[in-house]
């Protein structure tokens, strides 16, 4: 059986077209992406436990990676962006609801974001996250940016939770909604944020209503990468809510972290019935599938024996506006596999 590949972006495009949310957005600001005049500012938001006050909306935001960039696009905030940083291994950007926003926004680099790039772009805010751009080992942190007068907004999925460098402080979909509301407040587009959240909540509820339940729920493992030790999702990364709300039993739900590594022996012990492959990078989804199928320790794992492998795009699985569509997509795949 070939891996199931479902274009979740098409599900998302359909949902946004029905609601009027997405690349084309109208709102009380007149639909031009600029904040309304008046007494909205200053505003205070809480981001990863830190309260920050802004006297005006940032005008030259630099985003890092596809999910973060598309959060801005989903809110219609491309006119507030100096550009984005993203490798070119994150799928077909021409097929997403925000293709026009991609075309009008500068792709600053396909390599790693850094302080020099932010300075060259004259950024007033960098929207990234821990291990989504910010990294002490590389010397690129919010504290370093603050020294040169550049603000930061941390992706909520990446918030550190006090256990060393473990990440995650709330359920993944809640993290998405928190960021939409925070950015809605910061850029004075609260109505847009609430409309998107309502659309996503409706989409998730409809998918859950059709999802497998009870004893029919298959055990599901998310495979990102890695041969010696697999990189996977814990309870605080997007796949946890995507798998759970799609009608699966996430086998790594007890890991109180976001993206993390485990041992293959743990995977074998938990015997997933379905494996979801995260499709991105230099190693293709088919190459990942062939590795899983040929790796001797996995030979007796149910998902491998029955060839139950699903493929989702990277942007479906990290925190992004594509998460609700990925739930609907995976729910349909799980029903098909169980049928």
Automatic annotation (TrEMBL):
Pfam families: Peripla_BP_2. Coiled coil: none annotated. InterPro entries: ABC_Transporter_SBP, ABC_transptr_periplasmic_BD. SUPFAM superfamilies: Helical backbone' metal receptor (SSF53807). This is ABC transporter substrate-binding protein. Belongs to the bacterial solute-binding protein 8 family. Keywords: Signal. Residues 1-23 form the signal peptide. The keyword Cell wall biogenesis/degradation does not apply. The keyword Endoplasmic reticulum does not apply. It comes from Streptomyces ficellus. It comes from the Bacteria. Residues 60-339 form the Fe/B12 periplasmic-binding domain.
């Amino acid at each position: 059986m070939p891996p199931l590949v479902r274009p979740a972006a098409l599900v998302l495009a359909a949902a946004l077209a029905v609601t009027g949310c997405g690349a084309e957005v109208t709102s009380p600001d007149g639909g031009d992406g600029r904040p309304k005049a008046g007494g909205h500012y200053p505003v205070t938001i809480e981001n990863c436990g830190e309260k920050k006050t802004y006297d005006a909306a940032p005008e030259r935001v630099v985003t890092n990676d596809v999910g973060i960039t598309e959060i801005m696009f989903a809110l219609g905030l491309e006119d507030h962006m100096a550009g984005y940083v993203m490798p070119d291994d994150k799928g077909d950007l021409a097929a997403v609801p925000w293709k026009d926003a991609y075309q009008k926004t500068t792709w600053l680099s396909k390599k790693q974001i850094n302080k020099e790039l932010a300075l060259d772009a004259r950024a007033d805010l960098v929207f990234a996250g821990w291990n989504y751009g910010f990294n002490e080992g590389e010397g690129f942190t919010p504290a370093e940016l603050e020294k040169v007068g550049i603000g930061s907004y941390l992706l909520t999925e990446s918030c550190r939770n006090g256990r060393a460098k473990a990440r995650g402080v709330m359920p993944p979909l809640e993290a998405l909604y928190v960021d939409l509301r925070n950015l809605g407040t910061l850029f004075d587009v609260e109505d847009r944020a609430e409309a998107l959240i309502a659309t996503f909540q409706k989409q998730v509820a409809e998918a859950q209503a059709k999802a497998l339940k009870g004893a029919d729920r298959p055990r599901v493992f998310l495979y990102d990468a890695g041969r010696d030790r697999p990189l996977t999702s814990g309870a605080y990364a997007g796949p946890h809510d995507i798998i759970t709300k799609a009608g699966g039993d996430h086998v790594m739900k007890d890991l109180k972290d976001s993206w993390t590594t485990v041992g293959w022996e743990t995977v074998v012990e938990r015997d997933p019935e379905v494996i979801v492959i995260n499709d991105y990078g230099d190693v293709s989804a088919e190459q990942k599938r062939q590795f899983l199928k040929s790796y001797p320790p996995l030979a007796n794992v149910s998902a491998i024996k029955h060839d139950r492998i699903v493929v989702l795009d990277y942007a479906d699985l990290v925190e992004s506006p594509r998460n609700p569509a990925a739930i609907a997509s995976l729910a349909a795949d799980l029903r098909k596999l169980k049928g």
